[in-house]
Amino acid sequence: MTPNLLPDLPAVDLRIVPTEALLSHERHDAQRTAPLVKYLRRDGVLKNPPIVTPSGLDDNTYVMLDGANRIFALNELGIRHTLVQVVPYTEPHVQLLTWYHVICDITPAEMEACLRSVPGIEIGETNLSHARGLLAARAILSYCVVADGRVLTLAGGGLDLHERNRLLNAVCDSYLGVGTLYRQKTDVLSELLDIYPSMAGAMIYPRYEPAEILDLAQHGMEVPPGLTRHIVRGRALRLNYPLERLKADTSLEQKNAELKEWVQQKFSERQVRYYAESTYLFDE
């Protein structure tokens, strides 16, 4: 664990852990692994550490909150130890939000057919305001803002978290690969059509609670890909930690000792800057 070397600022808890100690909470997007492998091999550094939190199962396992694709890419490169940032899964340290799925390049009728093909799903129709209220109360699984102006509600699974999650994955599977998928934060049709004129519909998913994410991960279950959005206070970026140090044939204890010394040097040389305000980065 690295110390907090800047008083009155969020602590930066950086550790090197075995990749096998990391549990996934969200299904993997395999299409993103190959480019990451290419960039990691080319650059030879881990630019931004994945974000993890204690799993609650024991002291040696963690749930990946962000950066799972980087972990998969490191495994592809045969690197079995990775640098992570460990955070408490509570506000104000971490805020958990939800991305929405916008599906383009198919027709609204094809979109609806995908949803109606899922066994165990009950589909209704309502207005946007009512759909928002139903989802907030978890009276439905999700809703779809269709490009033709209709709002379809999807229900099923009762109150069982695991069954609801299974159905949500089935819903997502029904359209993945059929159309082109984008992530968005709005469910307002006019705003969506301005950005995505070829959209068929937008799937609006519930806002999860951290306890739900931990429960699913502890039971080996994952939410659909590209849903959770974690806002981390005091996130460590642009570490550019050498992969050679992670690949080295040394003990985990030695690697963490070297990491601590490396971080201390960065602080002592004034190479670390903390930004309290929200920022736009133009070199990603």
Structure report:
With 284 residues, this protein is α+β, with helices and mostly antiparallel strands. It contains 9 helices and 15 strands. A hairpin with a 4-residue loop joins strand 10 and strand 11 (151-155). Helix 1 crosses helix 2. The model has no long low-confidence stretch (mean pLDDT 92).
Number of strands: 15
Please report which band the strand proportion falls in: under 5%, 5-15%, 15-25%, 25-35%, 35-45% or over 45%.
15-25%
Bulk shape: elongated
Note the run of SSEs as H and E: EEHEEEHEEEHEHEEHEHEHEEHH
Class computed from helices, strands and strand pairing: alpha+beta
* Average predicted local confidence, pLDDT: 92
Radius of gyration, rounded? 21 Å
Number of helices: 9
Low-confidence stretches are none
Helix content: 25-40%
* CA distance, first residue to last residue: 27 Å
Largest sheet: 6 strands, antiparallel
Q: Strand sequence of the main sheet, in spatial order? A: 9-11-10-13-8-12
